[in-house]
Amino acid sequence: MEKIAKFMKVKYEQFEADWLKAFPESENIKEIYDGIKLPKRATSGSAGYDFYAPAGITLKQGESTLIPTGIRAKIDTGWVLSVFPRSGLGFKHRVQLDNTVGIIDSDYFNSSNEGHIMIKVSCDAHDEGHEVCLNAGDGFAQGIFTQFGITVDDSADGVRDGGFGSTTK
Questions:
Q1: pTM, to two decimals
Q2: I need a surface site. Which of 23, 24, 34, 132 has the fewest CB within 10 A?
């Protein structure tokens, strides 16, 4: 296997600012930050790196929740990290990413938000009042690195600063 990326935590100040935007009533943010687990594969044959909930989070039926992971990824040029929901959460609770698949480009690492990977999920279970409780440390998404190519006449020279559509602004 080719080693092409490294996961690390964003700085505490970045995590705190993003966490409070998503969960403004939160306390003990430093404890949450200190408990962040870097993504890892469960088995030697796993393609996906599991992303873990930084704190206990309840996903309610019909609602979207933005989860600041506290994670950034330094990725070699020519590679991308694609983020998907964990299979079991999708099967059991219809948990899915709001943008279907998250794409983390290699140049996102240098963005002004430190390339903070934030994952927005929804619980689309059909039964009224359905909730999914994620405990701190529970896997809720998975990231897979894939190589990509470009066209022979490609001349992209833009500079990224941010995510969620930043390259088309």
A1: 0.90
A2: 24
